[in-house]
Q: What sequence folds into this?
């Protein structure tokens, strides 16, 4: 969380070995959440409806799983969890859509907040992580660098496509 950067200002300098107390547990619990959500989607949704999220969850499970098992890159995973702040508003959007409340002030307000948090917590965070990975490539072993680069190469386009869909759906109907 942003508060963690205030309490641990050195964290962005060493996302490989350093992490605040409780961060490893938070990342481990997050792996459990993504596993559970993956299984729930697999069992209860049609594949054509959920393949993108299943793919997203697979990438997160692998990357976070490596951090949990190795007790390294926990700081990097912690930064990646900032992306999930936006998920609150994405989920609220889905609930409002299911409740057929699209033409309400609540939906419009959520659309604006969703877009703002999307830019700040998804796009900016992924850009920052990509930059950090590139700038620290000499300090990251080749296998971990390959996994991180692949993760960023998958997540960034997926998030740009979703951003475009949200813009088109909620602002350019």
A:
């Amino acid at each position: 969380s942003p508060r963690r950067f205030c309490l641990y200002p050195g964290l962005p300098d060493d996302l490989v070995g350093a992490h605040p107390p409780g961060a490893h547990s938070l990342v481990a619990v997050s792996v459990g959440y993504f596993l559970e959500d993956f299984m729930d989607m697999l069992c209860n949704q049609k594949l054509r409806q959920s393949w993108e999220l299943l793919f997203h969850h697979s990438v997160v499970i692998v990357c976070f799983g490596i951090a949990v098992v190795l007790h390294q890159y926990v700081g990097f995973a912690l930064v990646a969890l900032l992306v999930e702040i936006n998920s609150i508003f994405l989920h609220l959007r889905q609930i409002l859509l299911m409740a057929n409340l699209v033409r309400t002030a609540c939906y419009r307000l959520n659309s604006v907040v969703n877009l703002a948090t999307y830019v700040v917590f998804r796009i900016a965070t992924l850009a920052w992580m990509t930059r950090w990975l590139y700038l620290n490539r000499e300090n990251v072993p080749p296998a971990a660098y390959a996994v991180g680069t692949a993760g960023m190469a998958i997540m960034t386009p997926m998030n740009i496509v979703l951003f475009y869909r949200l813009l088109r759906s909620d602002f350019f109907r």
Summary: Residues 23-172 form one domain. The two ends are 34 Å apart (CA to CA). The first helix runs from residue 2 to 7. The chain has seven helices and no strands.
